[in-house]
Amino acid sequence: MRPHGPAGRHRPGLTAPARWVARRATLAARSGRGRPRVLALKLMIAIIACTLILMAATPRSAHALPAPADRTRFSSSDAVRLYAAGRLLEERGDSQAATDEYYRALVADPRAGAIARRVSELASRAGDTARSLEFARRALVSDPGDARALWLAGVAHFEQGQRTQALAELEAAMRADSNRIEYAQALAHVAQEMERLDVEREALRRLIALSEENSEAWFQLAAIDAREARYAEADSALEVASRLNSDRPGTDFLGGWIAESTGRDSVAIERYRRHLAAHDADQTTRRRLVTLLARQRRFDEAYREARRVSRSREGDADALLVEAELAFQSGASKAGQGILDRLVREHPGDAELHGRLIGLLARQERNRESQALAEHWAAAHPGDFRGAMLRARAAMLAADGTLALEQARAAVTMAPDSIETHALLGRILQRQRRWAEAESLWAAVVDRFPGDSGAALEIAFCREQLGDIAVAERAVRELLRREPGNAEAQNSLGYLLADHNRELPEAERLIRRAIAQQPDNGSFVDSLGWVLFRLGRLDEARSQLERAVDLTGEDPVVLEHLGDVYNKLDFKGLARQQYRRSLLRDSSNARVRGKLEEGR
After folding, report:
1. Helix axes 590-598, 556-568, angle to 10 degrees
2. Does 112 fall in a domain?
3. For the segment 335-381, what is each residue's pLDDT rounded down to a tens digit?
C-alpha cells in the first residue's frame, strides 16, 4: 500500500493503519489523557493486531522465505485482535484470561487452527488432558500436518492410556518437524512404555543428533543396545553417557551387565560392587554379584554376599538354597546342612523344593543323602506319584539307571495325565541314549498334549541323534513358524545348524535372538560359543564357553566344547583339563575319551 500525500508527511514504511495507531498515541501523549500503562498496553495490542492483519492479508512473493512452522492465518480482524490480546496475557502469566480471549477469537474465526492449538497448549500445561486433546483435534482439522498439534494430541492420548494412537501421532509429529527436542523426547518415552525398541532407538538417536551432550539419551540408547545383545554398541554409548554424567544412577549396574554379558566377569564384579556401595538395598544386583563370584570360584566372597541376600528376604527358599550351596562350596558344610534341614522342616510337603534339594546334594556328590531324602518324602506321602518321581530323579543323578527307569515308569503309571511324569521318563531314556524309545515316548506326549512345544523339540533332538538331520531341522522350523518368538526353538535350530556346520550366519542370528530373551541361560550361551567356534572366532568362543561352563554347573558337553576351543588355540594343557572334567561327569562319552587320548 503506497503512502498518501507528499513525501515527508508521514513516517516512511508505515501503512495507513499503523499511522493511525501512531497518531492516536501521539495525540494522547500531547493531551496527557489516560494512564501511561493502559496506553502502553493498548498501543502494543493495536500494533500486534495491525501487524498480524497485514501478515494475513499480504500475498507471499515467489521469492519469499518459507513460512515458519507456527504460521498464523486468520479470516477475521476481530480474531486477530483477540488472539493478540491472548498472547500478550500469556506473556504476562495470566493463562486463564488468555484462554478466555482465545475462546472469543475462535468464535470470531472458528477455523483458525493456530488459536485452537494455543488453547490445547495451555490446557496441556494445566493438566486438562481432555480439553487439550479436543482443541488439538480442532487444530488438525484446519491443518492435518501441524506438527505441534500432532504432538499435543499424542501427549494427550498417551496420558489417557491410548498408547497406540499416541505413538502414531508422535511419529507423525516427528516426520513433520524433526528438529524439536520435545517431540523426540515424547516419542522415545511412549515407545519405551510400549516396548517398541526400534522406534525408541530412532527417537533417541534424533535426540542425540539435536544435542550431543544429552547424557540421558546416550544412557537409554546403551540400555536398548544391551537388551538386544548389541554389546559393543552398548559399551560405546554408555562410555559417552558416563563421560557426560558420571553420577547418573544405574550407570555402574548397566556397565556391569554389559561386562557380564561379554564374559568380562572381573569388570562386572567391580562395577556391581560400586553400584552396591551406593545402593546397598539392591538385592537383585547382589544376586548377580553372587553368581559371578561363584563362577570365578571365589566361594568365600560369594557365600558372604549370599548370606546378605537371604537375610534381606527372610524365609525365601530360593535365597536359602543359594546360600546352602555356597556354604558347602566354601567349606561351611555344617551351615549348609543346617539350611537344608530348616527347609525340609518348614516345607515338608513341597515336592518341587525337595527335588531341588536332591539336585543340590547330588552336585555336592552327596548321592546317599539325596536318595535318603527322596525315600523320606515318598514314605511320608504314600501313593503320591511325586514320591516315585523324586526317587527316579535321585537315582538318575546317582547314575543308577535301572532304578531311575523303574521309578519313572511307576510315576507314569500312577499319573498318566501328568506331562511331568512323561518328561522325566523321556529325559532318563535320553540320558541312557535310548533314542528310539525316547522318540516314541515324546510322540505319545505330542498326541496326548498337542500344544506342548517342548515335546516337539525333544523329538527333533532324538531324530538328530538317530542321524536323521533333515527331519530334525524340518521339525524345529515348523515349530518356529507356529511360534516365531520361541527362544528354546531359536536356540535348538541354531545349535543344530552349528553342530553340523550348516548355515552358520543364520545359526548365530537365531541363537543371539534367544539370548536376548534369556541372557543367563547357560545352554543358549553354550550354543553361541559353539557357533562362534565354527565360524573361527576363537577368542569370542572362548569367552562365551567359559561363561557357559559356570552357568550350566560344568555340563559335560559344555566342558567338551571349551576343550575343543582351547585345543584349537593350542592351549593343550587347558584342553586336556576340560576333557577330564567332562569325563568325570559323563564317563560313557567315548568321543571325549578319544580326544583326551589324542592329546597325550
Report:
1. 30
2. no
3. 999 999 999 999 999 999 999 999 999 989 899 999 999 999 999 99
Which residue type occupies 346? E
pLDDT digits (tens, 9 = 90+) for 146-201: 999 999 999 999 999 999 999 999 999 999 999 999 999 999 999 999 989 899 99
387, 397: one domain: yes
pLDDT > 70 fraction of the chain, expressed in percent and rounded: 88
The tally of domains found in the chain comes to: 3
The per-residue pLDDT for 44 is: 52
CATH number at residue 411: 1.25.40.10
Same domain for 533 and 449? no
**504 assigned to some structural domain:** yes
Is 184:174 a contact under the CB 8 Å cutoff? yes
Tell me: the pLDDT tens digits for 23-47? Answer: 433 433 344 444 445 444 444 544 4
- Pairwise CA distance, residues 125 & 141, whole Å: 22
588 and 495 inside one domain: yes
Mark whether 469 and 508 lie in a shared domain: no
Name the E strands within 89-195: none
Domain residues for the domain of 424 are 347-352+366-432
Regarding whether 474 and 374 lie in a shared domain, the answer is: no
Check whether residue 421 and residue 474 sit in a common domain.
no
Chain mean pLDDT for the chain: 85
Residues 495 and 599 in one domain: yes
- The answer to whether residue 104 is domain-embedded is no
Q: What is the pLDDT of residue 72?
A: 52
Q: Return the ∠ at Cα 451 (arms to 449 and 457), rounded to 5°.
A: 95
Rg (CA), the chain: 36
- pLDDT at position 558: 93
- In terms of residues, how long is the chain? 600
| Burial 225-258, CB ≥16 within 10 A → b, else e | bbebbbbeebbebbebbbebeeebeebbbbbbbb
**Is 22 domain-assigned?**
no
3-state secondary structure (DSSP) of residue 266: helix
Query: 572 and 542 share a domain?
Result: yes
Q: Is the dihedral of CA 511, 513, 517, 519 positive or negative?
A: positive
- The structure's pTM equals 0.65
Task: Work out the angle between the directed axes of helices 283-295 and 538-551 (0-180°, nearest 10).
Answer: 110
295-333 CB burial, b ≥16 within 10 A, e <16:
beebbebbbebbbbbbeeeeeebebbbbbbbbbbbbebe
